[in-house]
Structure formats: structure tokens, C-alpha cells
Specification:
Helix content: 25-40%
Structural class: alpha+beta
Number of helices: 6
Shape: globular
Radius of gyration: 19 Å
Strand content: 5-15%
Length: 212
């Protein structure tokens, strides 16, 4: 597995994927060349100029990389969240994310590529004293598209305050099971470590069938 991974990232095809200058300029402009957003105070969250990273992800997929993560941690707004999201993260996200989905559709890749937009936790249902929202594990959302997903479905709901699950709760492990099925990973298998202890691929969870 290590050799296969090394062969992928050192292959001429993968190296070519790193050359964003080979991409037509009209495509690059669709993803955006937005400048870095510098937060006005050091306690607020700035946003680097990361729009081209999402285009880079598409190029890696086309080069044969099976799993790509684009790190966009800059939505983590604990202070003045409204202003920071409006001026920083959201304009850049809206442009680049929709450009990716359109690009995959035009290239006939939507059936073979699953796109998951997902954080590692939710945000508190109450705004804090500094106008931001803090870490909150009770409710959060994921947007899934491509990979056989039909689109347009909303699975599960929260209460009116976004504090607790209401209908059809979906666990993070269910989202992982959905992704693993697309990748052809058997979630019922276990692998032993060097001490012989078994480690399941996924302790529990089922694919979200309402999406298909």
C-alpha cells in the first residue's frame, strides 16, 4: 500500500497535476483568485487565498488520486462570526465550491467522484458574548454530492434552535459508511495490529440510503 501511494504521487501524471498554470485561465477564474482576507483584529479568523486549492483537488482526482482532502479550517469563527463569514470565508467558499461541482458535471465525473463538504463538529446554537459561535457536537451538517447521490435530498432535522436532533438523526459514522461504500471499502472487516488486537474499519454506521 505504501508503494502504491508513492507510485501515485511520484508518477508523471500526478506531477503534471501540480502545474496549475496548465489549466485554462477561464477555468481558474471560475474558481477565483480572491486575495487573502486579513481579519481586522488578531482574535478574529482570517482567510488565506485558498480558492485554487479546490481546483487542484480536481486535478489530483483526474491524475488518479482516490481520496483528496482540501483543508479549509477558516470557518472557525469564535469572534464576530457574522462579519467574518460575510467578508472572509463565505464569498470564497461559494465561488470555489460551486465551480468544483460544475466542473465535475461538465467533465462527466459526478458519478465517479463523491464530494463531501463537512466539518468535524457543529457550532453552538447560541451566539457567544463576542458575537461568535463556539464548538458544539450536538448537531452539524454535511453536504454530499456526486458518487451516485441523486441530489436535492435533506436527511434529518434539528429542533427549531439547531440544538438537538429532531427527525432521522444521522451519525458521523453513517456519513463515513456512505463514503466507504463509494470507495469500495468493506466496513465489516477488521484488521489486527502488531499486538494482534482487532481494529474494525468502522465500529458502526450504515450508508444513508435516502441519498441514492
Amino acid at each position: 500500500f505504501q508503494q502504491q501511494a508513492l507510485d501515485i504521487v511520484t508518477s508523471p501524471k500526478a506531477r503534471d497535476a501540480f502545474n496549475l498554470d496548465a489549466e485554462p485561465m477561464n477555468i481558474r477564474e471560475r474558481y477565483g483568485f480572491r486575495e487573502r482576507y486579513n481579519a481586522p483584529t488578531p482574535d478574529r479568523c482570517g482567510v488565506p487565498a485558498w480558492s485554487q486549492r479546490i481546483l487542484f483537488a480536481r486535478r489530483l482526482v483526474e491524475a488518479g488520486v482516490r481520496l483528496v482532502t482540501v483543508d479549509l479550517r477558516w470557518w472557525d469563527t469564535h469572534v464576530k462570526g457574522y462579519e467574518t463569514m460575510r467578508d472572509g470565508f463565505l464569498p470564497r467558499w461559494d465561488q470555489a465550491y460551486t465551480a468544483l461541482l460544475r466542473d465535475l458535471e461538465v467533465r462527466g465525473l459526478m458519478d465517479s467522484v463523491m464530494v463531501i463538504a463537512w466539518g468535524e463538529f457543529g457550532r453552538s446554537p447560541k451566539v457567544n458574548a463576542t458575537g461568535g459561535r463556539d464548538h458544539y457536537p450536538g448537531v452539524f451538517s454535511a453536504a454530499l454530492s456526486g458518487g451516485g447521490i441523486q441530489g436535492g435530498a435533506v436527511v434529518g432535522s434539528s429542533d427549531s434552535k439547531g440544538a438537538l436532533p429532531k427527525d432521522r438523526p444521522v451519525h458521523p459514522q453513517d456519513v463515513l459508511a456512505t463514503m466507504y461504500r463509494h470507495l469500495g471499502i468493506d466496513t465489516t472487516k477488521q484488521y489486527a495490529d502488531f499486538a494482534g488486537r482487532p481494529h474494525p474499519v468502522l465500529p458502526f454506521g450504515d450508508p444513508v440510503e435516502e441519498l441514492f
